[in-house]
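agent> Task received from the user: take the single chain below, predict its 3D structure, and emit structure tokens. No templates, no multimer pairing.
agent> Plan: (1) validate residues, (2) run structure prediction, (3) serialize to tokens, (4) report one or two observations.
agent> Step 1 OK, no nonstandard residues flagged.
tool_call: predict_structure(input=
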Amino acid sequence: MTLPEPLVGSVQAVYEDADLLVLQKPSGLLCVPGRGPDKQDCMSARAQQRWPGALIVHRLDQATSGLVLMARHIDAQRALSHAFAERQVHKRYQAVVQGQMGLADKGEGGSESAWGEIDLPIAADWERRPLRIIDPVAGKPSLTRWRALGHDRTTHTTRLELEPFTGRTHQLRVHLAAVGHAILGDALYADATTHAQAPRLLLHACHLAFTHPATGEPITLDSAPDF
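)
tool_result: status=success, residues=227
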């Protein structure tokens, strides 16, 4: 494993070799270029300045921070994309949400709870794109596992660990808002009060585990959120 210098613009590489990169994306930075000249600065463009030919494998929302996997060449991209499609890449997130979510709430600050599930179909909200909605008829099956890591009675919030079994756009944000526990700082799915409780979306991709496409070695990386 190589631990490289931080990338310019606060994007950091936490792992690199000849086949792949794992970068830590800050909140507010696009993964890929958007439409218009003001949206060309993004994680992939910054990565390609240092690693020419680096290729996107998956994405995080602009507002989400944390670990992002990239490929160094097309063969690695194909192998890693296949691993994502077959759910062979394990991802976990942390978030802080509104309300006391989870049944285990013992002692000062709360405690860890058992894993629960949110199983609600998600569809595009065509009239308000890029938003998503819960739609029992047109929605695609969407499953999120969650557990409470702790409760803050002062702020009436809960810190969660999240594991998306499916990978729908905005899945974690939509699912949590749908069950009445929107993520703090969420400009799209939270009410005005919950949105104002944090200066950014409190959602961080904190864990990646996968098999190296060239060596077969198991790779596990963790990143603690800064909130």
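agent> Step 4: summary for the user.
Helices lie at 43-50, 74-85, 171-178, 192-196.
agent> Done.
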